[in-house]
From TrEMBL:
Entries under PANTHER family matching the protein: RNA POLYMERASE II-ASSOCIATED PROTEIN 3
Stretches assigned to the RNA-polymerase II-associated protein 3-like C-terminal domain: 222-293
Keywords for the protein's UniProt record, in alphabetical order: Repeat, TPR repeat
A Pfam family it matches: RPAP3_C
Species whose genome carries this gene: Pichia inconspicua
Family under the similarity heading: Belongs to the RPAP3 family.
Protein name per its UniProtKB record: RNA polymerase II-associated protein 3
GO CC annotation, single: protein folding chaperone complex
Amino acid sequence: MTVSETLKKEGNSFFAEGDYVSALVKYTEAICANGAQPILYSNRAATFLKLESWENAVLDCERGLNLLTDESNETIKLKLLWRKSIGLRELQRLHEAFEVIQIALKINPNSEYLKNEYSLISQKLKAANSISNTKESSSDQENGEDIIDIEITEVDKIPDEFYTKDGVSTENAKSNIDSYEKVESSTSTIKSRMNDSHDFPMNPSLQYLLSLQDRFKTDLVSCNEYLVKLPVEAYRNIFAVSGIDPEVLNMFLKACIALLEQHKLEYKGEITEKLKLFKTLPRFSLTSVFVDSGLIDQLSKLFRDRLGEDFMSYW
C-alpha cells in the first residue's frame, strides 16, 4: 500500500467517525503525497461539504474532474459532478448547479441520488423564478420554462443530513470571527493604491485568487502588491467560514517575503493586519501545517532584521 493510499484510508476512517477536520488533514496529506488521484479530491470535497466550505468543495471537484482520463472510474466522475452540484447549490449558483447535474444524469439517468439532487435544484430554481416574477409584474415569465418536474422522494442510500446543514456546527468558526476586533483602516487610501494596479478586483472570489498563480508568471510585482494591499474585509468575506485557503496563504506569505526583501517597509501595517486576521479564522492551526516551513524561516528572519519584530507572534 502506497503512502497516499494509507493516508486516504485513515481519512476515510475519520470521515466515517464524523471527525471531518482530521479527515481533511489526512486527505490533504494524501494529495501532497500523490496529487494525481481524482478520488482524493472527491473525498476531500465531501469533507469540505460537511464543513460547509462550499467553494473549496467546488474547487476540489473541478481539480478532480480535470485529472480524469478515459480510463477513469465512472463512479468517481459521477461523485465529483454530484458534489460539485451540491456545492454550487449551496452557493446559490443554481444555474451552474443545474448544468452540472444534467451532465451527470446524462451519464447515469437512473441514479437515485443524482435525480434527488436534480429535484432539489429544480425546486430552488422555480422558487427563485417565482420571486423574480412577483417583483417584476411585467415579466414574460420565461424563467423556469425549461425546468423539468420530478417528484422528490426519500432516498434510503443517501443520508438526509448530506443535503442539509444539520449536524455541521460552525459555532466555533463564527465565534472566532466575532472575536476578531475590526480594524478601522484608511479604506480610501487602500482603494486609491489598489487602483494603481492593473485590473485587480477589490472584492475577488476564491477562484480568482487561486487563478493568480498563473498570473504571477507574467506580472509578479503587481500580484505581490495586490495580495498585500487587498483590504482585510475582502479576505474576511471569502474566508470567514471556511478559513484561509492553504494555497492563498502560501501566495500571501511569498508576496510578503518579496516586498520585505525589496525593503518596501511601508507595507508593514498591511502585512501584519492580514496576518492578525488569518490567525483568527477557522482552522488556521490546521491550514498552517501545510505552509512550507522554508517560508516561515524566511519571514522570521525578515521580520527580525527589517521590522524588528517576532514573526511568530503573528503566527
